[in-house]
Amino acid sequence: xxxxxTSKSRPxxxxxxxxxxxxxxxxxAIKAILTIARDGVAGLGVPGLEAGIGGLxxxxxxxxxxxxxxxxxxxxxxxxxxxxxxAEPLGVxxxxxxxxxxxxxxxxxxxxxxxxxxxxxxxxPRYKKLFMHQEGAGILNRLNQKLHNAIQxxxxxxxxxxxxxxxxxxxxxxxxxxxxxxxxEGARDVLSATISAETxxxxxxxxxxxxxxxRELDRVAALTEAATERATQGLAQVSDGLSRAETAALNNQxxxxxRAQARYNSHLRNDARGCFEGTRKNTLEVISNWIGDExxxxxxxxxxxxxxxxxxxxxAHTIAEESDLQNKLGASFFFSRNETDRRNPMLVYxxxxxxxxxxNSDLKKLIVRSLERDPDIGLARMETQFKxxxxxxxxxxxxxxxxxxxxxxxxxxxxxEAGAEEILxxxxxxxxxxxxxxxxxxxxxxxxxxxEKFRSPILRNLSHSYTLHDIEDSIVQADIELFLRRRLNxxxxxxxxxxxxxxxxxxxxxxxxSGILFIFASTAVRFIDSGKxxxxxxxxxxxxxxxxxKGTSKYKEVDTLYTQVLQYALAQEVDDDDDEDSExxxxxxxxxxxxxxxxxxxxxxxxLELLLNLEPGxxxxxxxxxxxxxxxxxxxxxxxxLAHPSFYDYLNNPERCLDPRLAIQPESHTxxxxxCFNTMISLLHKDPCGTGNPWLSNAEIPELxxxxxxxxxxxxxxCCEHFASHLHHAGSxxxxxxxxxxxxxxxxxxxxxxxxxxxxxVDSAITSLRAMEDWYKRVYVHNPxxxxxxxxxxxxxxxxxxxxxxxSGHIFTTALLFAPPCSLTSQYASSAAVDCVILGKPSAWExxxxxxxxxxxxxxxxxxxxxxxxxxGSEGGEVQVFxxxxxxxxxxSQAHTAPIQCLAFSKDGKLLAxxxxxxxxxxxxxxxxxxxxRIQGHSDGVTWIxxxxxxxxxxxxxxxxxxRTWDVxxxxxxxxxRGSVGHLLCGAMSPDGTTIATGGPTGINIWDxxxxxxxxxxxxxxxxxxxxxxxxxxxxxxxxxxxxxGDILVWDHRAGTRTYSTSSMKDETFLTLSPDGRQMACSNxxxxxxxxxxVFTRDSDNWDAVTCHLIIRSWEHHFDRVASVAFSPDxxxxxxxxxxxxxxxxxxxxxxVVDENPFVEVPELEICTVSADGSCIAVASRKTPSxxxxxxxxxxxxxxxxxxxxxxxxxxxxxxxxxLTMGALQAxxxxxxxxxxxxxxxxxxxxxxxxxxxxxxxxxxxxxxNGHLLAYNFPSQAFPAADVAIVSVGSxxxxxxxxxxxxxxILAMAFxxxxxxxxxxxxxxxxLWDLLGQSTLVTLHEEHPRxxxxxxxxxxHELILVTGPDQTTELNAFTFQSATLxxxxxxxxxxxxxxxASVKNGRLLCLExxxxxxxxxxxxxxxxxxxxxxxxxxxxxxxxxxxxxILIFPFDWTNIGVLDLEAVRRALPDSSSISTTSLTxx
Length: 1482
Hints:
Layout lengths: L27 H14 L5 H13 L4 H22 L12 H25 L4 H6 L1 H20 L3 H30 L4 H64 L26 H12 L8 E5 L6 H14 L3 E6 L5 H4 L4 H12 L1 H13 L8 H15 L7 E6 L7 H14 L7 E7 L3 H8 L1 H6 E5 L5 H23 L8 H11 L3 H12 L6 H9 L11 H21 L5 H17 L6 H8 L5 H5 L7 E2 L9 E2 L2 H7 L15 H17 L20 H8 L2 H16 L5 H13 L1 H11 L3 H15 L6 H23 L3 H9 L4 H5 L9 E3 L8 E6 L4 E6 L5 E6 L4 E5 L5 E3 L8 E6 L5 E6 L3 E6 L4 E7 L5 E6 L5 E6 L3 E6 L5 E6 L7 E4 L5 E6 L2 E6 L7 E3 L11 E3 L5 E5 L5 E5 L4 E6 L6 E5 L5 E8 L3 E9 L7 E8 H4 L4 E6 L5 E6 L3 E6 L19 E4 L5 E6 L4 E6 L7 E4 L3 E7 L5 E7 L9 E6 L4 E7 ...
Parallel strand pairs: 1-4, 1-5, 2-3, 3-4
Antiparallel strand pairs: 6-7, 8-63, 9-36, 10-11, 11-12, 12-13, 14-15, 15-16, 16-17, 18-19, 19-20, 20-21, 22-23, 23-24, 24-25, 26-27, 27-28, 28-29, 30-31, 31-32, 32-33, 34-35, 35-36, 37-38, 38-39, 39-40, 41-42, 42-43, 43-44, 45-46, 46-47, 47-48, 49-50, 50-51, 51-52, 53-54, 54-55, 55-56, 57-58, 58-59, ...
Helix pairs in contact: 1-2, 1-3, 1-8, 2-4, 3-6, 3-7, 3-8, 4-6, 7-8, 8-13, 12-13, 12-14, 13-14, 14-15, 15-16, 18-19, 18-20, 19-20, 20-21, 20-22, 22-23, 27-29, 27-30, 29-32, 31-33, 32-33, 33-34
């Protein structure tokens, strides 16, 4: 029979908190089967067979499919061999024939061999993990095959049974026949008389034997059937165990999803209830019918809209609860503005996916598969989350038997609002593509941004809208009356009040005051029932008194109710205290209530007391009479929060809350801001987790969460994340708050960022810092130092944010080290983990606010009208949107197949239009990242696109020579007009939105939105036929363009006349104009690959009077060709993209004026060397023949000198007092080489040597330690046959000529300390010359059998060789002592020839840049040393130069990096705790 190892899931919901698995040993059934087999062969007298089965019983382990296959083979063994042997007559030893015994013994030996293999495998540690390993799986397969072969080699069941039984029967027959034969032979004379009787007797014997055989066969069959039944039961247990284990593993993986406690029955919603029985019948019936109707014509989305307090969430709760009981509820998410997780749109899809996985096991597998492919999918952008966690699993799921309900409540409380728009946009784009019959119920207030989404054509067709406040009042009031009557009857019973209570008139008055808002009725009941000191009747009487409110008519009664509740609670507080304490009591009451209302994330009562510096118990005491409007959990660890959002609306609106003692006042945020700063200043400290190791990445900190709970309690975490929201609303004239902000900036900025890193909240730092900077600028007399600190810390977070996110200590170990000298580095100098940067810090912060690498060849960029977003387009048709503040990406799905030619945002920034060479345009919903309209109709590439002022129309210009307008909502064409200037290259729209200009090869056409023909044609030939640009000036009447030849032309488009022209900028290529018309961005080119981006400013209407105040040189800032630029709306920043895929946002200086010549000749650094003592660094350029000398001291700058020859190499003397250059007059010339010796201090040439022959080979030079002697490896005039010449530095004359043994190329040389000996290494040998005796002391040509690739001397006694072919190089460390060369260490592998290395304590230490980190390693260890800034990384490992502990990064002629490695090593903790995770940037 087929065996099923996977349990089938039964439809049914999984209750919250229930476990899906139990601890079951999946091997129990297998052991039972093998026990049956072992017992079956017991007593057969075949020890090997019994031992073999026993071995299998002890050694078989679980290994997924391999184990299942093995179980099948064991079952085959049980059926074929074991079951027949269990028959009692066959268990007798004497019935086994010698032949059968031999076969059984052979089978036992086979099983013993299998046991040995199993024992070898199981002797390894952690057998389960090994069985999952490829090798373990292979061994298990072999065990399976061996057992299978053993069974096949044995006879089939029938053969065994027949042979044993037939042998027994025929043995008896043989004996009878033999006896008969003897009788016959002894009594031949009576044969004839007795033959008939004997024949009958023989027949009877045969018949008896046949009966015995049949009886035994029946017994064997019965035993086999019983064994099969037991095996089936065992395998069922195995299957169930495997299924449970699989479920447990899936659950563990599903737990990895980040999620909010936002399901309808979450413990955070303990106070939530469904509709009161008998109420909301009509509404619930409408929604239930919608869920039950699965026809394709029924929209999949139901939008339940209504005023605050009207009962939306109660209805949503009821639908979720009923759907759950019917096993239809897939997931639910109930938003809440009072809780961070429950208002965060990034947690919506992971939360829904988790619940869907719990809802159905098949869906769980599909969702987990997405998690296995990308474990961080829960942290991805929302578009990716929706696609991978919801859309794709639901599309692949085949197990739906009906509608799957998803409930999303209070979408209006999603923050930010764009998150709600993105959710709706993604549902609109994808819900119809999902084959599962989804029913998505969404509730919200009728907020504008949500109404507009549901009014869009695509969502209007996909949704059914139901407005609660449009229901007839009488129907709603009947429900409210029923609710009040039954709930107040419960109150009467609980308090022992005689019924009927209340009176009918009192009840009707409450119903009347409730209007259509259930929140009034429910709050009134809670208020009446919550009193302890007064009876419910007195509270009812209080409510029935006429209150005063000037609120709007729809909320008037609710406002009056809230006022009555608060005034009553306040009166009770005052009555409870002495008159002397009443003022203090009122103050505490107000402070506690305001704080609960204003918190961005609710806190437990104990945390509130710590934040407000109150005594324990004060918070719960202050709100003990407010349980009708404030949720106060019994568990003190749960958060205190408002019962309903309408209560916050009331408190925060002085026109609704008329009692000044109760309303939230402007100074409330000031008080909270001061509490936050006091908390942070007193509790924040460096290394809060106490690791003592700032090099650890956050992921490597042991028990991070538990450490954080102790180090960063809830109220401190709240302050770190939300202080800026209170500071934003605080007054800027509060002296105490000003002092706190300044003190925080002076002492806590870095540890605050460190704490945010540990909390995973670094992205929020920029928003908080900018809010703090904006607030501080409002201070009448502010401290410039504080503003500088805020500016600097923002630059640190922007430029080093990626590393800080990965490692909280990054801000101390590297960010402070590589930041330019500034207020921050000065103020926090003592906080730096190590001071190891000698040279290489930038002199000032770059103007780049941030730079993003997209990986696409970018060619277009555009700002949104509010400046908050930047869009980019690429050659491949990709469109992306970034935050202009943080650089966070909102990617859009792929819609184009050819280059993007133009991008344009709608006026409100919610829509983005892209035009492409593929003849189409696309309108995007920016928040959702999905297209809402596809524009098709042009026959050639679309070159320009723009929205009308009301965002209803879209205009496009195309190379097909037409200007067309389109309906944004439908994508339908509205008009098509053909111009008079040929194919349209570009376009522009006037700032007032009334006029369109399109440019072609022969001129510019002027249009309005309705005209069929151009109003005017401006005759001019544009500067560029590809990428031409025309711009309107702010007055909307003037138009600017650049004509052929470079002249800037200004036109009055109303009259069709040219009003101005200038040739002052004819050498520039015009790119764009700022919105105020005062700034122009242009570019200039030199030598094809060098570009300067320039910004000009005009101070008047005279275009001749422009000044250049910014030049961005591509070769200085290392970007490729700039393809497009855009000014921010306020003109303060410039965004530009280049074809290398980078987007940069550059801060424009306010008043700076720079030299207009962009091409200042700066040599390209190509050669770098350093003196042995590390004091002098020499750099050289071949492209611009020159040399620069640096002193390795902080703040040094190079002294530069032009050279006559193109330099080939440079060497420094050991003490750095001299340097040697070698070069030729032409870079390609291999003759005419000159060596020049220079004095470092004066850059004077001391001596010149001419080479007599070609120097195409490697040139090696060595200085003696005192600088008196110089050795070089080419012939001199004095010693033409020598391989090496020894030269006197003072006279410049050659003193000796030395010859090598093999004449092989010399790679390196070194003098002894006293200058008496010279050691050399060639490609074939090593040797030592005695310069005083003029002889070779030793030649060691046999010591390095592999080819020497390169050689570097550490000292005379230590050198490093790189040997072997390029593909299999080895790094070797040798010592040379007493004429003996000995290798002391080796690092094999594909090493770069330029990898710097040193020898320390006889061991090699190699250095390598990996990603953004400098690593140190040898054959037995590796560890990261420090993070390296982007400019330093460009040198690569081949470009690094090492001398002793000085490591040089020659990345720029005017700025090289110099690192003190020993300082880094001293600062490192124990190497065993060093992070081995690089902070490599994406």
